[in-house]
Amino acid sequence: MIRALTGFSTRNPWKVIAVWAVLGMLLTVLSQTLIYRVTQTQTADFLPKSYDSAAAMAIAHDRFGTKPDANPVTILVARTDGRALTPADKEQIDAGAERLSRLKVTMPKPKDAAPLQHDYSQIPQVGPAMTAPDGTFELLSANLTGNSADPGLESTFRAFRDNARAEFAAQGLRAGFTGALADQVDSSDDGKTLSTIASACAVALIVLLHVLVFRSLLAALLPLISVALISGVASGAVVGTALFTGIKLDPSVPSLIAVVLLGIGIDYFLFLMFRFREQLRAHPGRHHRATTAEVSQKVGTAVTSAALTIVAAFATLGVASFGQFRVLGPAIAVSVLVMLLASLTLMPAVLAACGRKLFWPSRALKAEPREGTAARFGNLVARRPLTMVLASLALLGALAGGLAGIKMDYGLGGGGPRTASQNTALEISRALPAGVADPTSVYVERKNAGPLSPGSLDGLTQHLTRVAGVGQVAKPVLSEDRQAARIDLFLTADPQSQQARDLVSGPIRAAVAQSTPADLTAHVGGTPAVFADVSTAVDHDLRLVFPVAAVLIGVILLLLLRSVLAPVVLMLSVGLGFAATLGAAALLFQHAMDKPGVNFTLPLVLFLFVVALGTDYNILISDRIREEMEHPGPPRAAVARALRHTAPAITTAGLVLAGSFASLAVTPQPSTQQIGFATALGILLSAFLLSIVLVPALAAILGRSLWWPLRPGRTTARPTSPHHTGTPRSPQSPQSPQSPQSPPRSQWPAPQHQDTYL
């Protein structure tokens, strides 16, 4: 299959490129148009129905008509001079709220809007909520419906905000806005410039490293263009699959797909280009398409092994209970399969179409490269393998020590530059409980027939008022059919804080369980309750997913490498890298910087990137080591040759990816900073320690026994030929094709696809 795909692509490069270009453009437009129709932003909807907050949300939907895409906004209205509101001011505020409730907000349509973009124009629901005890401000509640991840709804909120400010400014009053949607829009507006700069720096870094390595602008730009095209195809495939199956995606899925495909796509392209350049140097007289076909077949085998391992790792997320994980795994798996298909078709076609011009204006193809750092380092690892192993294990063990006492932080942002929405929330919290803008709600439902009465909930309400941390308890609100009731609790702690989650998961739920009448069922909902349940689900899933993924990856490596010991070595090295990276993040953020813990998404993100890409690098170096061991000679010499040819590709790929993720570490959001730092460190450890030090050193110690029971190079000793290895030969060498002593090209033995290793 690999030979058929790569062979067809190198024989018909322009046809293959044209097909991918058309698919890329069409599916990119499809994904941009339909992505917000297959995403959902309510975290509670991703929880299994057995969780308390999910059951509360179901009652809110069924009994109180709460829309799943509702986005509540709290509006603070106060005098500009800071004095208490007068009766006339309050009358103006009520009249202004009534006028806003009748005013349709038209969604602005930017020039670069996606085709068929959903129109979020609507008449928002605006009404009075409460007044500050000191009378300095009044709170209004508003509600905008729609997908909060859609830029169209963000634009609609900005239009509504402008209308409300203008309405109250005309009365000499000021208005502030808070809530999840308001904070999201403010954060997006404040961080837009920095995000643009970080993205530009990441792209510039990739281009610069490619230019420095290949001395060619074309070799720097083509991988980026190709990966962007492939990402469009993958995103379209994922969105189309979600539409067809009815699956709802988390809004973060498209961005994660883009980052994953950027990483593995650049990696695969680099592996191909390094090997392509190596063979063009070794065989200057051969047609570049023949070289492309042979290189693509050989590298394609390693790429296929690596990609299938990543697919297996991501697919295991399908067994998770938390919906965000469960949909993320298959989505990434589909995307990686698309990238695998592209690496066997589009990438060889690009090399075949460009040929030697890919490296223009570099003259490196015409000159024998001097023995450089990679060759010297390969010799060092081959000479001192035990020292290298011990040093690697000591460093990894020291970093992994940070796992002792590690905690997960489920905080939703915070700690970065304060937005206007957060300033409004802080102003409210000085006079009212912090949870006023985002109440925690207890939903009570009758099991049997018969209407509920407010009096039947007096005991529960009184018990809740005595819970420390509950600042205020609102009167019960009955549903229209009087079969359910909602009791809003206004916590003194920030609803997005760990303190609020501990309060909900502990004393509040205990009070509800003790005081709910026997003929009623009660569930606690709201932001703190949802994320308390999310923390439970994530802990459960991580304990389940990681072992399942390890077993599945091990089985796949066993089948692909046809060895018992090699998969164990690779998996142990990747596992050590994961532990060291997570431990280093805990040492820095939890212990050195005194944070509550590491972000709860960090273990999964590291699993996605560090484990997957680390396995990629390990498979690449292992495949080359086995290839070199096919030739006669001591195993340590084979390890040295493998490092000489493969280390530059791995380190370049590692620098590109680490630099891209390091740009995230300068963003204002603490959670993003952690992800950027830890992922960059993990990739550097995978590229510079695991793949070119630890694994080769272990291979040098174990020798050909690493590949037991099929040990390479023991029984078959092939004579050295011009095609013996990928090691370039000097033009002055007696065995060089350019040497007068060499036989005519027509007398050279034809390269065998299975037995000749390039």
Describe the structure.
- The protein is α+β, with helices and mostly antiparallel strands and 758 residues long.
- Helix content is 59%, strand content 8%.
- The chain contains 21 helices and 11 strands.
- The protein has helices spanning 2-11, 13-34, 52-64, 87-102, 151-169, 180-214, 217-245, 253-282, 288-315, 323-344, 346-354, 373-383, 385-400, 420-429, 458-465, 498-515, 527-561, 565-592, 602-629, 635-662, 670-702, and strands at residues 70-79, 125-131, 137-145, 173-178, 408-409, 440-446, 470-473, 477-478, 484-491, 520-525, 598-599.
- The strands form 3 sheets. Strands 6, 7, 8, 9 and 10 form a 5-stranded antiparallel sheet that branches. It has a 4-stranded antiparallel sheet with strand order 2-3-1-4. A two-stranded parallel ribbon has the order 5-11.
- It is elongated and about 90 Å long.
